[in-house]
């Protein structure tokens, strides 16, 4: 089933999903980004097939509380499912933090530039 | 050329992004390269977040210095915090300060997954992502922070927490 999540615009972030990809754009630096991200990732998990692409290329900044949400998403994924991070390596946080998240489950998480 | 910026701010959430964006913009005007400006801005964002979440009272002071001879930016943030909050900070600091920064960041990510409320990733992120060397000091001179009410009364339960991060930067042509 293709993913279909209409644009959710909260503060400086826009979240959406289409086909096999979910998109995170803007800046996420809320005090508790889990309020925004947890239900979005739940929707994505319910709609995804065996693999999902997470496109961070339009996400300029993610605070450490938001990184915790990404960690929860990948650790709680469906058993055996694959996650592909689509990244922009010119954004320092993506190069470093997403690389460490990938190392939590190298068999099932990959990074595309 | 040396550079020194000193800001006093209120512990409001809007100031997290205000200061992050300000630091990135001013440092990228020829003071350091863009990547280094982003690293310092990320570190400032994480430190200011901590202050806004845990600052017990009054405002906070952030001081940013560039020492061209040492090839680094020094970022110091001072705030008045409850002694219990300072103990929590010290506990996290001791957990993240030793060992390979990437492995420590990974360990803290796994720990955050098991903590339903707190991420506590900020200091580990600063060490790895910003290549920051973190130190701290605890003092009694809470007078240097503005807007702290009943300073004499609060001096028993509150201290001045000063956190410094030194980040290596490439020198740019000036």
Topology overview:
The complex is a heterodimer of chains A (113) and B (174).
Chain A: E1 3-10, E2 13-19, E3 21-28, H1 34-47, E4 51-55, E5 59-62, H2 64-75, E6 82-86, H3 92-102, E7 109-112
Chain B: E1 3-9, H1 14-27, H2 34-54, E2 57-67, E3 72-82, H3 83-96, H4 101-113, H5 122-129, E4 133-139, H6 151-154, E5 158-168
Antiparallel strand pairs in B: 1-2, 2-3, 3-5, 4-5
Helix pairs in contact in B: 1-2, 2-5, 4-5
Looking at this protein, list some descriptive labels:
heterodimer; A: 113 residues; alpha/beta; 7-stranded mixed beta sheet; 3 helices; 7 strands; B: 174 residues; alpha+beta; 5-stranded antiparallel beta sheet; 6 helices; globular
What does this structure look like?
The complex is a heterodimer of chains A (about 110) and B (about 170). With about 110 residues, chain A is of the alpha/beta class. Chain A is built from three helices and seven strands. Chain A has helices at about 35-45, 65-75, 90-100, and strands at about 5-10, 15-20, 20-30, 50-55, 60, 80-85, 110. In chain A, strands 1, 2, 3, 4, 5, 6 and 7 form a seven-stranded mixed beta sheet that branches. In chain A, strand 1 and strand 2 form a beta hairpin. The longest helix of chain A is centred in the middle third of the chain and has 14 residues, at about 35-45. The model of chain A has no long low-confidence stretch (mean pLDDT about 95). With about 170 residues, chain B is α+β, with helices and mostly antiparallel strands. Helix content of chain B is about 45%, strand content about 25%. In chain B, strand 2 (about 55-65) and strand 3 form a beta hairpin. In chain B, helix 4 (about 100-115) packs antiparallel against helix 5 (about 120-130). Chain B is globular. At the A-B interface, helix 2 and helix 3 of A face helix 1, helix 2, helix 4 and helix 5 of B.
Mean pLDDT of chain B: 90
Low confidence ranges of chain B: none
Order of helix and strand elements from N to C terminus of chain B: EHHEEHHHEHE
Tell me the β content of chain A.
35-45%
Radius of gyration of chain B: 16 Å
Adjacency order of strands in the biggest sheet of chain B: 1-2-3-5-4
Query: In DSSP terms, counting alpha (H) and pi (I) runs of 4 or more, how many helices of chain A?
Result: 3
Question: Largest interface by residue count?
Answer: A-B, 21 and 26 residues
Helix/strand order of chain A, N-terminal first: EEEHEEHEHE
What's the multimeric state? heterodimer
The percentage helix of chain B is 40-55%
DSSP summary, beta strand count of chain B: 5
Give helix % range of chain A.
25-40%
Based on secondary structure, the structural category of chain A is alpha/beta
Helix and strand composition category of chain B = alpha+beta
Total number of strands of chain A: 7
């Amino acid at each position: 089933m293709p993913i279909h999540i209409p644009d959710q615009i909260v503060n400086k972030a826009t979240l959406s999903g289409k086909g096999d990809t979910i998109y995170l754009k803007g800046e996420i630096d809320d005090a508790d980004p889990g309020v925004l991200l947890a239900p979005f990732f739940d929707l994505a998990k319910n709609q995804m097939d065996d693999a999902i692409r997470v496109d961070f290329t339009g996400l300029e900044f993610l605070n450490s509380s938001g990184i915790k949400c990404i960690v929860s998403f990948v650790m709680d994924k469906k058993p055996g499912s694959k996650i592909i991070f689509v990244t922009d390596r010119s954004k320092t946080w993506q190069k470093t933090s997403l690389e460490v998240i990938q190392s939590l489950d190298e068999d099932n998480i990959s990074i595309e530039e | 050329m040396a550079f020194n910026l000193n800001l006093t701010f209120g512990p409001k959430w809007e100031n997290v992004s205000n200061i992050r964006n300000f630091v990135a913009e001013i440092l990228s005007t020829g003071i350091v390269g863009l990547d280094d400006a982003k690293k310092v801005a990320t570190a400032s964002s994480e430190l200011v977040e901590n202050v806004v979440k845990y600052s017990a009272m009054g405002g906070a002071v952030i001081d940013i210095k560039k020492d061209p001879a040492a090839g680094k930016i020094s970022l110091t943030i001072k705030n008045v915090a409850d002694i219990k909050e300072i103990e929590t900070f010290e506990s996290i600091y001791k957990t993240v300060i030793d060992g390979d920064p990437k492995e420590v960041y990974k360990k803290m990510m796994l720990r955050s997954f098991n903590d339903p409320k707190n991420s506590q990733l900020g200091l580990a992120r600063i060490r790895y992502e910003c290549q920051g060397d973190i130190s701290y000091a605890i003092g009694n001179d809470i007078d240097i922070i503005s807007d702290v009410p009943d300073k004499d009364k609060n001096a028993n339960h509150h201290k001045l927490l000063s956190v410094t991060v030194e980040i290596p930067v490439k020198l740019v042509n000036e």
